[in-house]
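Dear H.,

Thanks for agreeing to be a second pair of eyes. The structure we're designing against is below in token form, covering all 483 positions.
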């Protein structure tokens, strides 16, 4: 969807038509400037002067399916009681920018006309009070509207707001249930639907098997051509690759027909499936579908949302699992049995067919590759019983120095910040899952915006994290009320 953001600029009737005309002119220039510099368009709306106009502008944003959020700015002084009716009806994320059209004070010419026109320094404080008084989730950013740093921070917020929009219309396909006896992949699906908008629906493996059996040879051949376009096939067992193509065609058609954006599988429940979906899941992730293994519907949903948030950013985003440590270099190796997203690859991925050693099925086809080096984040959402918690860890992905001839999986090697030991202790203390979403394009601040928009607890593990401070943060969070 082509998202946009409504720019609502406040004033009042006391200043006269000339001032209001200039407010409209200035705000239109700013909206056009933001649109040129940001990923998503900023749609100008005429200045609002009273409660009725404010309510109408916010209602228009609420009812616009392309609007992912509103941006407010008080060019002049806009008495905040006028905003109560509109803001109490707001259904979209809110960004309040404290800026000013002019950059510097014109010392030689400044007069009362100038002062009456340029009142953001106290107009935005009045606006900020009412949003605080209403306890509205919102972000406040200050800086001149032409400043590149402000644009970067606005872009982070925009991507988070797009994530919220995607979240509220997301449908997640559960193929089977959770892996037996695993705690972290469980959770309250009804509460997730209420809080995040996720519609999480179960279908039996038998339903999928029926769909797999309906795939034609022509459809398999077309999917094989897609594989040859994107990957190198390094196996003589073409029948195994064709089986993954058959599974992918069935899954993709069903998800597209039924409006699913994410899905999971479960290797404990395959029934008559000949292989655990490996290559099929990987290629679907490449196309933008969210995925997680072992029945982890929360990570599958987050994977889809973060992929949409990271659209057009360099680097990949996809499902990840912590696997094993290299304490000699203080690194963590992430992988999974099969399903590592090819958007991470530093090279053309290779299709191989090897025994899996789990799932008790035929050797599945999968993609193998070495991952790109660069800064990234790991993000996870866990159900704490009384609330959902998002945990984000900053990491530095490094080049894999050695081949792994006996381990035919794709993997990513990273240095967690602030260190392997502190990161692991902090993640475990916070209750973080062994599944996460790895993203090279997104950062912790963007994910913080996303969590705040949804009134979700947010825990950040980064370069300056210490265990005593984290313990105190978690203790304080346990005593907060999360709506």
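And this is the sequence the design step returned. I haven't edited it by hand at all.
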């Amino acid at each position: 969807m082509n998202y946009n953001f409504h720019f609502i600029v406040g004033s009042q009737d006391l200043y006269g038509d000339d001032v209001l005309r200039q407010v409209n002119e200035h705000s239109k220039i700013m909206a056009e400037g933001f649109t040129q510099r940001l990923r998503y368009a900023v749609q100008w709306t005429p200045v609002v002067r009273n409660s009725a106009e404010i309510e109408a502008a916010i209602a228009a944003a609420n009812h616009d399916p392309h609007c992912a959020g509103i941006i407010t700015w008080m060019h002049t002084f806009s008495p905040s009681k006028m905003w109560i009716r509109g803001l109490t009806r707001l259904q979209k994320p809110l960004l309040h920018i404290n800026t000013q059209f002019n950059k510097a004070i014109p010392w030689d010419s400044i007069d009362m006309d100038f002062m009456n026109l340029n009142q953001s320094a106290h107009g935005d404080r009045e606006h900020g009070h009412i949003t605080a008084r209403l306890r509205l989730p919102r972000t406040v950013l200050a800086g001149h509207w032409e400043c590149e740093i402000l644009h970067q921070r606005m872009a982070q917020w925009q991507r988070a707001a797009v994530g919220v929009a995607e979240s509220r219309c997301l449908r997640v396909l559960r193929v089977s249930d959770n892996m037996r006896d695993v705690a972290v992949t469980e959770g309250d699906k009804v509460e997730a639907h209420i809080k995040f908008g996720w519609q999480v629906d179960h279908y039996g493996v038998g339903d999928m098997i029926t769909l797999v059996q309906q795939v034609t040879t022509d459809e398999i051949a077309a999917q094989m051509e897609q594989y040859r376009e994107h990957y190198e096939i390094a196996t003589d067992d073409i029948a195994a690759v064709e089986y993954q193509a058959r599974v992918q065609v069935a899954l993709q058609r069903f998800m597209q027909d039924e409006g699913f954006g994410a899905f999971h599988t479960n290797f404990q429940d395959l029934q008559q499936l000949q292989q655990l979906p490996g290559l099929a899941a990987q290629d679907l992730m490449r196309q933008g579908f969210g995925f997680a293994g072992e029945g982890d519907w929360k990570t599958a949903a987050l994977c889809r949302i973060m992929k949409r948030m990271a659209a057009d950013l360099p680097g990949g985003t996809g499902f990840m699992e912590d696997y094993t440590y290299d304490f000699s270099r203080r690194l963590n190796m992430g992988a999974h049995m099969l399903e590592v997203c090819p958007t991470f690859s530093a090279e053309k991925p290779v299709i191989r067919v090897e025994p899996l050693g789990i799932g008790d099925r035929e050797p599945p086809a999968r993609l193998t590759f070495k991952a790109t080096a660069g800064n990234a984040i790991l993000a996870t959402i866990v159900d704490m019983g009384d609330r959902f918690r998002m945990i984000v860890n900053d990491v530095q992905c490094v080049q894999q120095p050695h081949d792994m001839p006996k381990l035919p999986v794709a993997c990513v090697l990273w240095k967690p910040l602030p260190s392997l030991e502190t990161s692991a202790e902090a993640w475990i203390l916070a209750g973080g899952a062994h599944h996460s979403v790895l993203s090279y394009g997104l950062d912790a601040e963007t994910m913080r915006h996303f969590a705040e928009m949804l009134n979700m607890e947010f825990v950040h593990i980064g370069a300056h994290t210490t265990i005593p401070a984290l313990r105190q943060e978690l203790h304080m969070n346990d005593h907060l009320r999360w709506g």
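Two observations from my side: The chain has a mean pLDDT of 95. The longest strand covers residues 388-398.

Warmly,
E.
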